Amino acid sequence: MTLDGLWRELQDLNENEIYTIHKLVQALKRTRESPLAYIEEMMHFQSLGLDQESGAYIHRMMVTDELRNRLGILHGGVTATFIDTAMGSTVFQDMGIERGAVTLDLNIHFLSPAREGWLTAKSHIIKKGKTIVVLETKVTDEESRLIASASGTFYRLKK
């Protein structure tokens, strides 16, 4: 694909589609300077750290038009990606980033549709071994409605 070819592709887009393309390009550009991957930038992923009172690691994401499915609700795969990313971030925050971690297992219960606004994931470490970490995460919307609950197992890679 050349710039000329891309320009031709853009010619028949409506105003909303042009705005969406602009947001996608901005997210792509942010990945040049951000430690976040492209999809995390698209989710407006935020790590708020450990809540000392509850013992949960808190993460947020924004539901946007680009992340909704044809029913107007957050795509289940994006919800799963948010949970997986929040759990992975929790492992790194709790145990350090010296070693990588990968998902071994992720079980999600989708409980309510997410339509708009910020979602909050609260992740707890249930069991922590030398290489295996088990977590639970609950995702709520701005009205504190439970959107999803999940359990996951992560494997900490060796150096």
UniProtKB/TrEMBL annotation:
<protein>
    <recommendedName>
        <fullName>Medium/long-chain acyl-CoA thioesterase YigI</fullName>
        <ecNumber>3.1.2.20</ecNumber>
    </recommendedName>
</protein>
<dbReference type="InterPro" id="IPR029069">
    <property type="entry name" value="HotDog_dom_sf"/>
</dbReference>
<keyword id="KW-0378">Hydrolase</keyword>
<dbReference type="GO" id="GO:0047617">
    <property type="term" value="F:fatty acyl-CoA hydrolase activity"/>
</dbReference>
<dbReference type="InterPro" id="IPR003736">
    <property type="entry name" value="PAAI_dom"/>
</dbReference>
<comment type="similarity">
    <text>Belongs to the YigI thioesterase family.</text>
</comment>
<dbReference type="Pfam" id="PF03061">
    <property type="entry name" value="4HBT"/>
</dbReference>
<dbReference type="InterPro" id="IPR006683">
    <property type="entry name" value="Thioestr_dom"/>
</dbReference>
<feature type="domain" description="Thioesterase">
    <location>
        <begin position="72"/>
        <end position="147"/>
    </location>
</feature>
